[in-house]
Amino acid sequence: MLYVDMTHPRETDPLLPHNSNYDSGNDGFKRLRLRHHLNTPLSTHHTDLILLYCYIITGLLDSSAVFIWGSFVSMQTGNTVYLGLGLASQISHPKHSSNSDAGGGNDDRWIKSGISIASFCLGSLIFGAFHRAFSPRKRWVLMASFGLQIACITCAATIVSLEKPSKTSALTWRVIVPLAMVAFQSSGQAVISRVLRLGGLSSVVLTSVYCDLFSHPDFVSGAALRKDVEERRRVGAVVCLLAGAVMGGLWARSEVGLMGALWTAVGLKSVIVLAWFTWREDGGDGAVQA
Fold first, then answer.
1. Pseudo-torsion of CA 74, 77, 78, 80, nearest 10°?
2. Residue 81 belongs to a domain with what CATH number?
3. Tally of structural domains, the chain
């Protein structure tokens, strides 16, 4: 009979015993923690910084889009003016509309503006419905919202990278599709400002910000900036959008053009997704804090 000594270890014995029940239980605990982490409503404390950061992205995309495509992708007030000018040209000089200028350097600007407006409105409808369907401030909901925005800009950037449009590019799907996708995703930022209860920082417009900033009774004395957090937010919005516009203009005038601006926006929005993943959970601070 062969005798096997079980009291002494052998070279082939594992250093630690394998416990499948322990491993499966540990994996289950990790999944449970991740699920809880993703389903946690987030604190609104300092979320104004996220929206101010979004103003940089707005300036970046709008300045480069206007320079190359001739229309805005976020600020729809300007697009509405371009659309009105184009419609007026069509009505007053329909036979010569091909030679008319709807407000800037190419005769199809009003069509691009209309596409941008329609895409932005559609995006507002969809992003708004998405946030209403789920708890709007859950971590995964905010991450998914910006993830969809990133996906749209990535698709647009890919098309632009392959086609390399210019100011003189014909109005084909190579212009229409990326323009529509970037305008569509821009509405997501505006919806987020409502979700975070910071409607004054829509991240896509500045007209009301300028009005509220300069009409403040303590603006001239300078006391408003020292005492009022809303005033500091308004100044931050102006500075951030201006910085983004300068950045977008530099990209648009460089060799990489609109492509560089779009890929930069992808990187900037990816930072926001990471921020939401690490953002602290709601501790009952329902009100927006400074």
1. 110
2. 1.20.1250
3. 1
